[in-house]
Design a protein that fits this description.
about 425 residues; alpha/beta; UDP-n-acetylglucosamine1-carboxyvinyl-transferase, Chain; 2 domains; four-stranded mixed beta sheet; binds uridine-diphosphate-N-acetylglucosamine
Length: about 425
């Protein structure tokens, strides 16, 4: 296992190029299961999670090749319809194959994800939605076995909470269903819109793009896709916050500032200078940041996937800040590790109260999940002394070449074998 060694308290300076979004690439890759042919997906990041979903597609009979950041996937000969426990347990998003397999083959067998580091994270909305579209569902040996007699039927699906992968699964199921499907309280994350655009380019009929009410009129067949993965807004946010926390000035390029409305407003309120220009954001810190409060919300609210990183920034802010997590329970695992670095944080239910201090101190800490790991990197970059982060495989699930990108910004960081 690798660990990350950071010698902190060096300002970041330079330019960082943002990769394609993990959470967009995963559903785009899953959607290639819908119809035979060679599909082309541009701007795909090379991550542990994208490799996992490609391994899953291979087990189903798909072929793929990569040319630079362009991924070509052929799904002519699907001969399996199962996502095994071994794959789903390493990546919950494997559940994204359920909708397309059911739509194309009329059957799917997908392992239940089970426990997860950031709370229970059930998939009941996915299942209820497919059930409303006429799928027969049974639970056997920890697997969801789903089937349809002839074809999925359009139906009305309402989410109690807007679920991102739930919306994506139902969308992919609905594009080939007979009749009209309405998704109410749909997730509006940009990654959902990226999928809507891909499906539309394949011949799907979808109304309500970017809204919380998606209306899908099923078609009989689709054509292969050519689509570009949107820039990773969470990676973008992580580098902006890293510069805010460690200090310095950086130009974050190949991103989409419009996908980060809540974060940019909050960072400006904290006193950072944020200048948007086309697909770049210039961030710099002139003085100590001021405390701000945040509450995670579905898009366009503040993303839960940036909550941990923002907490590292607030650990060094002037004043008290309150960070409330409303999307996932148990998403404060980074707090114990940040405290090892000197942060003053108290948890009260789903809120964390952070009293900003002048300086964090390097320590040995442990990565527990993807975004928690990112928060420890951010803190380590700012901390005096050396921070050693173990279990960094979590980071490699979602950040393309983080070490190389940080080194290019002047950070003193490297990987070592544990
Ligand atoms: C996606 C993202 C993840 C992000 C999250 C919230 C991907 C691959 N992952 O995860 O990075 O943190 O959105 O923005 O895109 N829920 C249920 N039942 C369900 C489904 C969800 O109760 O069947 C609840 C969840 O427990 C959570 C909320 O709905 O409280 C939102 O979760 P959801 O949007 O589904 O998260 P994911 O799609 O798993």
């Amino acid at each position: 296992m690798d660990k990350l060694i950071i010698e902190g308290a060096h300002k970041l300076q330079g330019e960082v190029r943002i990769s394609g979004a993990k959470n967009a690439a995963l559903p785009l890759i899953a959607a290639t299961l819908l119809t035979p042919g060679w599909h082309v997906i541009h701007n795909v990041p090379d991550l542990r999670d994208t490799r996992t979903i490609l391994a899953l597609l291979e087990t189903l009979g798909a072929e793929w090749k990569k040319e630079g950041t362009t991924l070509l996937i052929n799904t002519d000969s699907l001969n399996k319809f199962e996502a095994s426990y071994d794959l789903v347990k390493t990546m919950r998003a494997s559940i994204l194959v359920l909708g397309p397999l059911l739509a194309r083959l009329g059957k799917a067998r997908v392992s239940l994800p089970g426990g997860c580091a950031i709370g229970a994270r059930p998939i009941d909305f996915h299942l209820q939605g497919l059930n409303n579209m006429g799928a027969n569902l049974a639970l056997e040996d920890g697997y969801v076995e789903a089937s349809v007699v002839t074809r999925l039927m359009g139906g009305t699906v309402y989410f109690d909470i807007p679920s991102v992968t739930g919306t994506e699964n139902i969308l992919m199921a609905a594009v080939l269903a007979k009749g009209e499907t309405v998704i109410k309280n749909a997730a509006r994350e940009p990654e959902v819109t990226n999928l809507v655009d891909m499906l539309t380019s394949m011949g799907a009929r979808i109304k309500g793009r970017d809204s919380d009410r998606l209306i899908i009129r099923g078609v009989k067949s689709l054509k292969p896709a050519v689509v570009t993965t949107i820039p990773d807004r969470i990676e973008t946010g992580t580098y902006l916050i890293a510069v805010g926390t460690a200090g310095g000035e950086a130009n974050v390029t190949h991103c989409n500032p419009a996908h980060l409305p809540a974060l940019l407003e909050k960072l400006r309120a904290s006193g950072l200078s944020i200048k948007e220009s086309g697909d770049s954001i210039l961030v710099s810190r002139q003085a100590r940041v001021q405390s701000i409060d945040i509450k995670t919300q579905p898009y366009p609210g503040f993303p839960t996937d940036l909550q941990a990183q923002l907490m590292s920034l607030m650990s060094l802010a002037n004043g008290l800040s309150v960070v409330s997590e409303t999307i996932f329970e148990n998403r404060f695992m980074h707090v114990a590790e940040l405290k090892r670095m000197g942060a003053e944080i108290k948890i009260n239910g789903n809120s964390a109260i952070i009293k900003g201090i002048e300086q964090l101190k390097g320590a040995r800490v442990m990565a527990t999940d993807l975004r928690a790991s990112a928060s420890l990197v951010v803190a380590g970059l700012a901390a005096r002394g050396v921070t050693e982060i173990s279990r960094i495989y979590h980071l490699e699930r979602g950040y393309e070449d983080m070490v190389g990108k940080l080194q290019a910004l002047g950070a003193k960081v490297h990987k070592e074998k544990e």
